[in-house]
């Protein structure tokens, strides 16, 4: 099923013409639970990977605030909780019985961190044919995003980007290595999802606008709240009219709890541009107008462990975003990861 973002409640560029030249195209990916193959664009799905190409591993320093767990531990924890949430229960009946609780505690106990390189985990696979506006190095038609599912600098997983030509892959790697260590809560393990790409228009977050314009937008939002007696007030533009939530390609950065800082390529000093955003959810209580039309009807039964707004089950920080920026001068230059 395709996903359709409703029109914005207000055509903000007609009210504030200064915003019109700042409009950018973003592609909301709308990941939803599915069974993608190596020939599909996906989140958390298998990668089209050559059998004769070494699978990448992380050799960077990890910041383990709690003991890591295994990938299998995460899968078993999720399976246990999924079954528990889906089964019928009597009022006030515990979610887990004592044996299940003890088993879950055992899975969550973790293990000492391994010292050898940690195999990377597939995060996303994007065929350029599916993502309007996405382009890579000459001859490439596929972007693959992997990461080490442990905390690194800025309490983020360390991402690895691969651009390739799908037709040149040849014999496929069918049993890729898996990481020995995963972040304690499994927050960086995406569940397999198929994608429903959709182009939307974005405008800069208030923190990226001149202060005078940002102040006028804030005051305008408060006026709208006074007239309607509801809404987010001064944050109306921030939540509903500027940057789309959710996993996406391109667009603007979702700056909110931290100020934007100059971000320039370490190789050539060119300003970075946004490439790919990982989000902890596609909507929340403050961004209801972004809920796709197809997802507005309340589920008729139990939804299981997955929240309808977060099918990949990825959590960045306390519900934030991880945005990957790239250098527009060269795809060979290092990328940048930022929590926003």
From TrEMBL:
Region of interest called Disordered, as start-end residue ranges on this chain: 287-312
Domain of life of the source: Bacteria
Protein name: DUF1963 domain-containing protein
Organism per entry: Kitasatospora paranensis
Lineage of source species: Bacteria, Bacillati, Actinomycetota, Actinomycetes, Kitasatosporales
